[in-house]
Amino acid sequence: MVRYLLLVLALVALVPFVPKWVETWVPGQTETAAPQAAVSTSARTLKIPADSSGHFVTPAEVNGKDVEMLVDTGATVVALPQSVARRAGLSLRKEDFTASVATANGTVAAAPVVLKDLRLGAIRLSEVEAIVLPDASLSKSLLGMSALRKLERFDISGDTLVLVQ
């Protein structure tokens, strides 16, 4: 489990560089569309347009509380900053931070948790594995593979990420 957490955070550190790499591989792409809100197109489908940096950011609800999440297919699990976890009703004590995770800023303690309810538009996921990191180590919530694996499928079509439950 610790190895997976270390891998997740190592991959998270690479996320900001991905758009630059992709930009050099996609000839003729000089401009990215302005960010748009995620659009639910059916009872169980969510379309998320890429933002100006090429990232997919979507509004979500964690245990009924609004959260903005960056979709990160390189993250093994959903990751939340501690302040977001607290707002979502996850009461964590110092002794709950039992996992060590490697980040760009060094190794930090993380608390493994299970999210009872994660909503992405009309998509509802239950019992999603996640980790909580100190705010200084994680500035934005990450929608990782522990949530994406629970979907029927997800794919990128042009500048849009499509989630289907």
UniProtKB/TrEMBL annotation:
<keyword id="KW-0378">Hydrolase</keyword>
<dbReference type="InterPro" id="IPR001969">
    <property type="entry name" value="Aspartic_peptidase_AS"/>
</dbReference>
<dbReference type="InterPro" id="IPR034122">
    <property type="entry name" value="Retropepsin-like_bacterial"/>
</dbReference>
<protein>
    <submittedName>
        <fullName>TIGR02281 family clan AA aspartic protease</fullName>
        <ecNumber>3.4.23.-</ecNumber>
    </submittedName>
</protein>
<dbReference type="GO" id="GO:0006508">
    <property type="term" value="P:proteolysis"/>
</dbReference>
<dbReference type="Pfam" id="PF13975">
    <property type="entry name" value="gag-asp_proteas"/>
</dbReference>
<dbReference type="InterPro" id="IPR011969">
    <property type="entry name" value="Clan_AA_Asp_peptidase_C"/>
</dbReference>
<keyword id="KW-0645">Protease</keyword>
<dbReference type="InterPro" id="IPR021109">
    <property type="entry name" value="Peptidase_aspartic_dom_sf"/>
</dbReference>
<dbReference type="GO" id="GO:0004190">
    <property type="term" value="F:aspartic-type endopeptidase activity"/>
</dbReference>
